[in-house]
Design brief:
Helix content: under 10%
CATH architecture: 8 Propeller
Number of strands: 39
Radius of gyration: 23 Å
Shape: globular
Length: 603
C-alpha cells in the first residue's frame, strides 16, 4: 500500500494488516469527556427516499481531505470530512453497493486514483475518486460482471459482494456473498482482477477440485457446484511478504452436512495464499465439517508477538465460537498451542457424519459462553426468570443443550454460541504500544429445531415457538445469566486476558442492575491517545474505554445501534474526528432504525 498521511483512514482496517490503530492522540484519556457531535450525515440524502429499514455496516474511508462511503440507499458518496457536505454522488443502477464499504487505490502513472466496490448483483465497480464517475478503462466502462465463472452454470444463483475488496499492487482481490442454502449454487471462490483492465488474473477454489490440496476432504462428488465456503467478511494482507489472509465461511447448507461428508476444506478455515498468484501457503480449519454456521468472517489481524525474547510475525483470528487463535503468519504454526478435543457426536442428525473432535486454543480461554445448562437461566428479573424457565421446561426433560459443539437437533435445542456467534465479523483493534488486542463478543444462544424437508432429502432449521434466539423476544432479554456482551483486552505476548468489561447496558433495568452487557455486532478502534472506541451494542450508545484498564471514560446516546466499526482522522481544520455509522436493525432485533453517519470532535 502506498504511504498515506498519518491523519487519514485509507482502507477498511486503516492498514492492510487490519490493526484498526490510529497514531492520532489529540483526543486522549484526559479530554475524551469533551467529545461532542460535530455533524451528522443522513444516508437518505436531501430530498431522497429513506433507505430500507436494514442494518448498514459501512465504515467510511478518509484520504487526502475527502471521505468516501457506500450508503444505504444505493449510492456511493464523497463527503467533506469537516462537515459531512456532499462533494459528489454516484447512484448504483443495479442492486446495492456492499454494505460494509469500499476500497481506495491511489492510482499510478497509468491510472488516476480510484474507488473499488462490489454490488449485491455481482458487479465490481471502479470510480474515479476525484469525480465519482465510472473509470472507463476498467472492465466494461468501469464495471466488471463477476458472475461468469462463479455461477456454476446456475443462472439464477445468488452472487454478490457484501464487504470491501482489497487492492495489492496491480490486483483488486474479491471475496463472495453467496447463499446459505440449498447446497448447490454459486462458488465462493476468491478471485483477483487486474486493477487497470478488470481482467481476471487468478482464482482460488474455496472448494478444492480433484487433484487440488484438500479435495480428499470431500466424499465422492459432493464438492461439485457446492456453494458457501466464501470470504463474505474481510481480507487482510502482509504487504511486505505478499501474503493474503482469507477467512472462509461454512459450506452449504449451514446446519446439515449429510450430503457433504468429510472435513470439507476450506470451509470455516483461515487460508494464507500468495497475493500475486493465489497459490496456497498454509491453512487452518477452525471447525471440521461445520454444521453450526460458524463462518470465519472477522478480519485476521496481523501483529507482532514477543515470546521468549523472540519476535514472531503473527496473525490473530477471532471466531463465531468465541475462540481466538494466534498463528505464526508465515508458517501457520500455532503460537499458544491448539489441541483437538472430543465433542458430542451422538446427538447428530440422521444421515450426517459429525467430526469427532474440534480444535481449541490453549490460550486465551473462550471469550464467549459455549455451553449451557438449566441452572444458568437468567434470574435478573422475576418476569424474565419465569418466561425463561417456562420456555426451557416446555419439553419433557428440558430443552436439548450441553457443552461446546452440541448439535442442532430434532428436539428443541439451545446452542451456544448462537449461529450469529460469540464474535461475528466484528473487527478487533490492536494497540502495538500495549501489545493488547481488543475483542468484543456476545454471550447469546440460538433456539431452534431441525425438521426434514418435504422431500425427505435434508434437514431445515426452524424456530421454536416462533423464536430463533434464546431470549424473550418482546424485549430482547437473553435467557442466560449476564453478561450478554463483553469487551476484552488480550495481551498478545502472553495469550492472557488483560482485562474484560461488560459492553452495553439494559436500560429497562433498575439503575444498579443495568450493566449486563448487550448483544453486539460491529468492531472497535484503538488510538495512540490511550482509547478504544466502540459502538456495536443494541443499546444505541457509542463509548470510549481506557485502553490500559478497560475503564469506561465516555458514553453518548446515538440515533440507533452502531453495528459497524468506527474510524478516526484529522481533517484540514486541524481537528481529530471520531466517526461511526448507526442504523440499528439487523440480526439483533434492534428496532431503532436510522440512516446516520455521526462524527464527533472535541468541544
Amino acid at each position: 500500500m502506498a504511504a498515506f498521511a498519518q491523519t487519514d483512514w485509507p482502507t477498511y482496517g486503516r492498514d492492510l494488516a487490519g490493526t484498526r490503530y490510529s497514531p492520532l492522540k489529540q483526543i486522549n484519556t484526559r479530554n475524551v469527556t469533551r467529545l461532542a457531535k460535530a455533524w451528522t450525515y443522513h444516508m437518505s440524502g436531501i430530498g431522497g427516499a429513506p433507505p430500507a429499514a436494514r442494518v448498514w455496516e459501512a465504515s467510511p474511508l478518509v484520504v487526502g481531505g475527502v471521505m468516501y462511503l457506500t450508503a444505504a440507499n444505493g449510492r456511493v458518496v464523497a463527503l467533506e470530512p469537516e462537515t459531512g457536505k456532499e462533494l459528489w454522488v454516484y447512484q448504483v443502477s443495479d442492486g446495492l453497493p456492499a454494505e460494509r464499504g469500499l476500497e481506495y487505490w491511489p492510482g499510478d502513472a497509468q491510472s488516476s486514483a480510484q474507488l473499488f466496490f462490489g454490488t449485491s448483483t455481482g458487479k465490481l465497480i471502479a470510480l474515479n475518486a476525484k469525480t465519482g464517475r465510472l473509470a472507463p478503462g476498467f472492465g466494461n466502462e468501469g464495471i466488471v460482471d463477476m458472475k461468469p465463472g462463479a455461477l456454476n452454470g446456475l443462472t439464477n444463483s445468488m452472487f454478490g459482494l457484501s464487504s470491501p475488496p482489497v487492492v495489492y499492487k496491480n490486483l483488486v482481490i474479491t471475496g463472495a456473498h453467496v447463499q446459505e442454502s440449498p447446497s448447490i449454487g454459486s462458488a465462493g471462490d476468491t478471485r483477483a482482477w487486474d486493477v487497470h483492465t478488470g481482467k481476471l488474473v487468478w482464482t482460488f477454489h474455496s472448494v478444492p477440485r480433484p487433484g487440488e490440496a484438500g479435495s480428499e476432504t470431500w466424499e465422492g462428488d459432493s464438492w461439485k457446484n457446492r456453494s458457501g465456503t466464501n470470504v463474505w467478511g474481510f481480507f487482510t494482507l502482509d504487504a511486505e511478504r505478499g501474503i493474503l489472509y482469507m477467512p472462509f465461511g461454512e459450506p452449504t447448507t449451514d446446519y446439515w452436512g449429510g450430503d457433504r461428508k468429510g472435513a470439507n476444506l476450506y470451509g470455516t478455515s483461515l487460508v494464507a495464499v500468495d497475493a500475486l498468484t493465489g497459490s496456497l501457503k498454509w491453512y487452518f480449519q477452525a471447525v471440521h465439517h461445520d454444521t453450526w454456521d460458524y463462518d470465519l468472517a472477522a478480519p485476521p489481524v496481523l501483529l507482532e508477538i514477543t515470546r521468549n525474547g523472540r519476535k514472531i510475525p503473527a496473525v490473530a483470528q477471532l471466531t463465531k465460537m468465541g475462540l481466538l487463535f494466534f498463528f505464526n503468519r508465515v508458517t501457520g504454526e500455532p503460537i499458544y498451542g491448539i489441541e483437538e478435543r472430543p465433542v458430542p457426536v451422538s446427538d447428530a442428525l440422521a444421515g450426517d457424519t459429525p467430526w469427532p473432535t474440534q480444535p481449541f486454543p490453549l490460550k486465551p480461554p473462550p471469550l464467549a459462553r459455549n455451553s449451557f445448562q438449566r441452572s444458568e437461566l437468567a434470574t435478573v428479573t422475576p418476569e424474565l426468570e419465569e418466561f425463561c424457565r417456562e420456555l426451557f421446561d416446555s419439553v419433557p426433560g428440558g430443552l436439548h443443550s450441553g457443552g461446546p459443539y452440541t448439535h442442532y437437533s430434532t428436539e428443541p435445542s439451545v446452542i451456544f454460541p448462537s449461529s450469529i456467534g460469540g464474535g461475528n465479523w466484528n473487527p478487533p483493534s490492536y494497540d502495538p504500544a500495549l501489545g493488547y488486542l481488543f475483542v468484543n463478543t456476545m454471550d447469546f444462544g440460538s433456539l431452534n429445531t431441525m425438521a426434514k424437508s418435504s422431500d425427505g432429502t435434508r434437514y431445515n432449521r426452524l424456530g421454536y415457538r416462533g423464536i430463533n434466539r434464546f431470549w424473550e423476544p418482546s424485549n430482547n432479554l437473553p435467557c442466560n445469566q449476564p453478561p450478554w456482551g463483553r469487551l476484552f483486552a488480550i495481551n498478545v505476548n502472553t495469550g492472557d486476558i488483560a482485562w474484560q468489561v461488560p459492553l452495553g447496558i439494559t436500560e429497562s433495568f433498575p439503575e444498579g442492575k443495568q450493566r449486563t452487557g448487550r448483544p453486539n455486532m460491529g468492531g472497535s478502534l484503538a488510538t495512540a491517545g490511550g482509547l478504544v472506541f466502540i459502538g456495536a451494542t443494541d443499546d444505541s450508545r457509542f463509548r470510549a474505554f481506557e485502553s490500559k484498564t478497560g475503564k469506561e471514560l465516555w458514553v453518548t446516546r446515538i440515533d440507533a445501534g452502531a453495528h459497524s466499526a468506527p474510524i478516526t482522522y484529522q481533517s484540514k481544520d486541524g481537528k481529530q474526528y471520531v466517526l461511526v455509522t448507526a442504523t440499528g436493525g439487523g440480526f439483533l432485533g434492534d428496532k431503532s432504525n436510522a440512516d446516520s453517519v455521526i462524527a464527533f470532535a472535541l468541544q
